Amino acid sequence: MGSTQKFRAGLLQMRSGRAVTPNIDAASKLAREAKALGADYIQTPEMTNLMEQNSKALFSIVVDEEHDPSLAAFRELARDLKVYLHVGSLAVKVSPEKAANRSFLLDPEGEVVARYDKIHMFDVELGEGESYRESNNYRPGEIAVLADLPWGRMGLTVCYDLRFPSLYRALAEAGADFLAVPAAFTKITGEAHWNILTRARAIETGSYVLAAAQGGLHENGRETYGHSIVVDPWGNVIAEGGTEPGIIMAEIDPALVTSARRRIPSLQHGRRFELSAPSDRARLRLVDKAS
Question: Of 6, 10, 44, 127, whose Cβ has the fewest other Cβ atoms within 10 Å?
Fold first, then answer.
């Protein structure tokens, strides 16, 4: 969109538990503090409303979007604060046996201007008895989502999506200036990869990365990494949290997106490849981008 207007982003770091109401209250309190610090855009982390892995417990609590009390509360909060409130994700029931890990971008009137269902499910074996099967409870999304803000265009993603650079390149090629990555990275994977991956996605696309995170030991026994982060389009970390709940603030300058992409125009230079596999060896072949 090419805006030169700066804005202030407030990222809320949380430690969501197994009950919805306390999580709403904690997020609302932090959002009000961020607004008092001058935030124009506020982002909450993945699973703002509920951190629950047990299927029976999860589906005894979650409801469909229309009846979700957390979404209703956040819509009212956005209206009250007159900010763009990006609810990193909520667990929202979409069928008797599946929920969606759904992100909501709310405008200052409390209207939902974009929804995004997390595409990549966190199905991993980390070792030492730690494993996750997000797909047991959640239905993956199928569509990448962009939303226009007064300051530029934002690409919506969630947590494990961060490991799939093709998604971020597609969002940037479609005009995203800012990439949102609300997350609940585990402590193990966060310590190893969080900073590197957020910086890589910013550098590869010449975009801002804004990533509010869960942090600390949760009621359900999961330990998340925290370290909510804002990375500028040149790959500089301009704000980062620790492990405790709180707020990080950063000034976002859309002009730096234009500058970074002019200096390193990799979005214009990318080529697509097609893999062929002759009997003797695998081989990559260039494919015309127009095809």
Answer: 127
